[in-house]
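Protein fold
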Amino acid sequence: MKTFLPCATRKVSGFSVLHAVCKEEKKTLSMMKTLFLLFCCAALSSGAFAQTVNQQKQLEDTRKLLATTDYVYPYIDTPPAYAGGSEKWQAYQNTSPLLKDAVKAAKDQKMPAGKYQVTAKFSITADGSVTEVKTTNKPIGYGLEDAVINFIKGSGKWIPANVEGENTKAAVMLPVTFNIFY
């Protein structure tokens, strides 16, 4: 068994100089430290990789299971969309008699002028139907919340959300803005 003795030093021109034996011992220790560090890094990274693979598999299994249930899935591959896209949605919103009548009724009730927003939360089922429509903000009154609920219920079929290639139920938050001016 090799023992490490303290290295002898000698003074040369006022500097301490290590003997050649000490330099070799330092190289050996340095190499051992490097190998140990590399071994530790390899062990940790392989363990982390295995854990990541297991977590990924569990996540995929859970996503596939939830895609086949009626659960409102919080993480989706493709969100629900209005059939026909945003241009058709804008046209539906701009021509809706429900929203126009709500503004007229609010004016008739002397609602103060201003910009009002009603946020609705609803679900789009796997077949594209609208369900569970409700408003989430503080009530404004003047019939605006009811108009938004009826407006969304009457919007027809939507393109459902998609998870793992399967249509699934998903929640939608939609703000509707009313501009009341006289």
In short: The chain has two domains: 9-61, 81-180.
